[in-house]
């Protein structure tokens, strides 16, 4: 009875004392208060957002992870979690290192999976849509989980990750808005993700209090925004009744999200304030769906552009991706936005700056006006859904599904087809007739000039600057323009729709379209709708005053088209993931030191895998170059690390120690019984996002032995050979039978008291030999009084005789 009471008391007190005693054992300035409060600087592959990408080519970006991000209210903005979230969203894009084949699509989620594994998430699962060639109606999503301890309370942290970028035809679903409620294409995607998450919770038998982390980029961002709002409104409906989620435990960050929330749903309500949407006001994609159609984002919008941080953003971009930096600072940038006109240069038609334009010379103002105009063109949300939604979304889905060769074939067909010029003439004429509701009178010279400029528009996106249209076609286009001007707008619209159908059929056939794909966008009704939309989008001029129209009645529409076409890259570049993350880094001081990293820091870190035969548990410590303890190893896992970069990553297959590359580190381990200990060491190259396994060794160790793993400092591009690492066994002998020496390392220290507390609490299992040394008061039990005796001995107070001395 006495022993049972003493053990019960030990268990109770160990919960109270374990943290403080453990910290004494590894005391150091900056020691983390929670067992999992370590930091992890990692890297990931991602699909680039700018430029052509060769098959198999991806870029690498870095991030900083810690569980601490999820140990405060999700309603409080965290600039570090914002950067990390966008990094994960970027990694979720379909990997271009995998080919677009049936086998390749099965592994398109590899970058997201690697990211989640590296940051300690387990049970990673993704839906069927993530493993097949995307269609307009698919929705890729992944889920994962890990355990978080906050103030002693356990939570399951659940990741709900919609696929973001490189989703091919799935992007066409962005243009499915529906007539009411949230934007239908995005809302359906959010419902799919939440249904998968609910099934995941049931499959993994998750219960109790949970935290949810959701994030996304572009289309995935809009879907993550809706996911978060739905979880705030009705978590039980979407996750089931086995788990409990509060808004404080929801962490939702999006990047470059289109607006998908119906304003009638009150998306700015305070309850959604913890959803954070980072975006740029000069991003064409993030400006959709137009606010004039009644759309917004749930939660808090954060404009990332800050003039005072622009140079810092460029520095981040230069470090992340030199090619993107070069393009952003020389050719594609909202700062380079300028009204355009057509000009003959060296015999070719080209776009040049229009310094006398009435069009605003400001990308942000232009984009706002363009979005308002799109609502006017389509007649509002309901008319858009009835007339334009199907042909536009189907055409965009088809184009986005093409390979680079197929899209090049489609473009070449359009620019080389003489009917493209006839189409441009018809679209132009239809617009001016529709706009002014009457005939226009043009001289022969004006007709020649207009046709010349329209031919330039057809070729404006052609790198060669050559229209590819012969003189006969040019002459016919002139006749068509003169003829069309004598007709009414609706008749010209019919001709334009016919030309559009022929041009699309030729281009889609050249790029390998099926008959079903052709029929979905080239039927008469679709072509009539697209004719109205394209004519007004390309030639519409919402900035032209009545006075200016009277002075320049004939070619202002040409200048409007030139401005739109000539600035497409300037209006879309701010949607690139490289730009977004570079802006996020300007507010995240964890990235301030990247320009000054030493070669050793650039090397990344070492992954140390340790296992013992028969699943034998092992304990010990991690020491620095001076032999000072900086972390505790308990049951094979790092606890209470005084160095925030030293930690342990748990995986479905075990886990590994994370050891910085710029420090001399030793890992000292003791098994609870005799076992074969296997050590494998891999070097994680931070800026290559890969691990090279260089070392593998097995040793036999008794419970009295100490296994020492030596890890010297390494530098980037100077990775040592396997001979630089070593695993040695220090036999237990003299000193291994010292009274009070729980870890049997030859000395009695405060850590020995910790091992007794942990053993009695059931956290670890000490060997029988070790237990014999722990009964320092010799009452035939190992309990709290033995801990007190060791503490008194360490503090040079009166303690039972024999502590610190060999047992006879």
UniProtKB/TrEMBL annotation:
CDD domains, sorted: Dockerin_I (cd14256)
Domain Dockerin: 735-801
Keyword Signal applies: yes
Entry keywords, A to Z: Signal
Gene Ontology biological process terms from the UniProt entry: polysaccharide catabolic process
Signal peptide interval: 1-23
UniProt name for this protein: Dockerin type I repeat-containing protein
Species, as recorded: Ruminococcus difficilis
């Amino acid at each position: 009875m006495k022993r049972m009471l003493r053990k019960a008391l030990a268990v109770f007190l160990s919960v109270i004392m374990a943290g403080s005693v453990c910290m004494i054992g590894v005391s150091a300035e900056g020691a983390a208060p929670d067992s999992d409060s370590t930091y992890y600087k990692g890297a990931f592959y991602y699909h680039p957002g700018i430029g052509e990408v060769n098959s198999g080519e991806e870029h690498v970006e870095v991030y900083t992870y810690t569980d601490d991000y999820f140990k405060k209210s999700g309603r409080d903005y965290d600039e570090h979690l914002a950067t990390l979230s966008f990094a994960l969203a970027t990694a979720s894009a379909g990997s271009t290192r995998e080919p677009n084949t049936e086998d390749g699509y099965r592994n398109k989620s590899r970058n997201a999976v690697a990211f989640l594994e590296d940051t300690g998430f387990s049970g990673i699962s993704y839906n069927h849509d993530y493993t097949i060639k995307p269609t307009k109606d698919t929705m890729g999503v992944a889920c994962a989980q890990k355990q978080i301890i906050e103030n002693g309370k356990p939570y399951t942290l659940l990741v709900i990750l919609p696929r973001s970028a490189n989703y091919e035809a799935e992007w066409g679903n962005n243009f499915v808005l529906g007539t009411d409620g949230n934007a239908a294409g995005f809302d359906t995607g959010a419902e799919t993700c939440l249904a998968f998450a609910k099934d995941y919770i049931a499959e993994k038998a998750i219960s109790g209090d949970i935290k949810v982390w959701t994030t996304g980029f572009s289309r995935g961002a809009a879907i993550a925004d809706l996911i978060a709002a739905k979880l705030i409104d009705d978590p039980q409906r979407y996750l089931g009744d086995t788990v409990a989620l509060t808004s404080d435990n929801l962490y939702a960050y999006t990047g470059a999200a289109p607006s998908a929330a119906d304003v009638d749903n009150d998306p700015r309500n305070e309850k959604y304030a913890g959803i954070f949407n980072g975006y740029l006001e000069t991003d064409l994609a993030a400006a959709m769906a137009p606010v004039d159609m009644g759309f917004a984002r749930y939660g808090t919008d954060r404009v990332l552009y800050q003039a005072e941080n622009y140079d810092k953003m460029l520095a981040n971009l230069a470090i992340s991706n030199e090619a993107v930096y070069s393009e952003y600072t020389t050719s594609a940038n909202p700062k380079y936005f300028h009204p355009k006109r057509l000009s003959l240069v060296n015999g070719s038609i080209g776009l040049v700056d229009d310094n006398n334009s009435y069009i605003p010379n400001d990308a942000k103002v232009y984009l706002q006006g363009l979005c308002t105009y799109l609502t006017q063109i389509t007649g509002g949300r309901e008319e858009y859904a009835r007339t334009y939604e199907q042909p536009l979304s189907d055409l965009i889905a088809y184009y986005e599904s093409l390979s680079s060769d197929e899209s090049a074939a489609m473009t070449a067909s359009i620019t080389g087809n003489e009917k493209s010029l006839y189409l441009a003439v018809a679209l132009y004429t239809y617009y001016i007739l529709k706009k002014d509701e009457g005939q226009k009178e043009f001289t022969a010279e004006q007709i020649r000039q207009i046709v010349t400029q329209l031919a330039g528009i057809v070729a404006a996106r052609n790198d060669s600057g050559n229209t590819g249209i012969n003189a006969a076609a040019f002459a016919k286009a002139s006749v068509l323009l003169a003829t069309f001007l004598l007709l009414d707008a609706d008749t010209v619209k019919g001709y334009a729709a016919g030309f559009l159908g022929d041009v699309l059929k030729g281009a889609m056939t050249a790029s390998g379209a099926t008959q079903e794909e052709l029929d979905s966008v080239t039927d008469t009704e679709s072509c009539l709708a697209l004719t109205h939309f394209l004519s007004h989008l390309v030639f519409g001029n919402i900035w032209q005053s009545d006075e200016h129209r009277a002075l320049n009645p004939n070619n202002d529409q040409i200048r409007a088209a030139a401005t739109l076409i000539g600035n497409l890259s300037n209006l879309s570049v701010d949607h690139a993931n490289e730009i977004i993350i570079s802006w996020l880094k300007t507010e995240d001081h964890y990235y301030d030191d990247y320009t000054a990293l030493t070669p050793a820091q650039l090397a990344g870190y070492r992954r140390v895998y340790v296992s013992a035969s028969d699943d034998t548990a092992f304990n010990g410590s991690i020491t620095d170059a001076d032999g000072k303890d900086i972390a505790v190893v308990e049951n094979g896992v790092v606890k209470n690390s005084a160095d925030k970069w030293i930690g342990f990553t748990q995986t479905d297959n075990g886990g590994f120690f994370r050891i910085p590359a710029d420090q001399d580190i030793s890992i000292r381990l003791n098994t609870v019984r005799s076992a074969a200990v296997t050590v494998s060491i891999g070097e994680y190259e931070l800026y290559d996002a890969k691990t090279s396994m260089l070392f593998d060794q097995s040793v036999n160790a008794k419970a009295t032995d100490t296994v020492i793993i030596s890890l010297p400092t390494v530098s980037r591009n100077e990775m040592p050979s396997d001979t630089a690492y070593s695993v040695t066994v220090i036999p237990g002998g003299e000193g291994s039978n010292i009274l009070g020496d729980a870890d049997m390392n030859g000395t009695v220290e405060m850590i020995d008291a910790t091992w007794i507390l942990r053993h009695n609490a059931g956290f670890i299992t000490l060997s029988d030999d070790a237990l014999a040394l722990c009964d320092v008061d010799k009452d035939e039990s190992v309990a709290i009084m033995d801990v007190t005796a060791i503490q008194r001995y360490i503090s040079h107070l009166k303690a039972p005789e024999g502590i610190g001395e060999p047992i006879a």
